[in-house]
Amino acid sequence: MANGSGPRPTDDLANERTFLAYVRTSLSVMAFGFVIARFAVYLQLMPNPAHIILPQGRTSEILGIAFAVFGCLLGVVGMWRYSAAARALAAGRYRSNPAWPIAVGVATLLLGIAVVAGLLRFF
């Protein structure tokens, strides 16, 4: 914004697209959490003619809940970032903040490590 007259339509639309990407991602992560949480129930209901010993415990439920919570938090972060960017664009003082992508990346990495640890527990 060189003239300081307010955000350009392209800036506002880019902010909106970013928010919608947060919404899509948070919904996908929450849905994946639901699938993970219910997978153990599915395994227990399946016929087991080979008499395979299924893991007992609540690992899939805990991981599913963790994914669902992470999806909810990701949606909240998306709402906050959208509103903060919209205010900054309107005031002509928008600055990029690399801390948020790093924080989301670290949270995703930690959740991924939890999934791998949970899977290794079954072997």
Describe this structure in words.
The chain is mainly α. It has one domain (9-121). Helix content is 76%, strand content 0%. The chain contains three helices and no strands. It has helices at residues 9-45, 59-91, 99-121. Helix 1 (9-45) packs antiparallel against helix 2 (59-91) and helix 2 packs antiparallel against helix 3. The protein is elongated. It starts with 8 loop residues before the first helix and ends with a helix.
How many H/I helical runs? 3
Biggest sheet statistics:
none
Mean of residue pLDDT? 83
The helix fraction, in percent, is over 70%
Low-confidence stretches: none
Based on secondary structure, the structural category is: mainly alpha
**Spatial separation of the terminal alpha carbons:** 56 Å
**Roughly how many Å is the radius of gyration?**
20 Å
Using the alpha-carbon principal axes, give the shape. elongated
Order of helices and strands: HHH
Number of domains: 1
According to DSSP, the number of beta strands is: 0
Strand content: under 5%
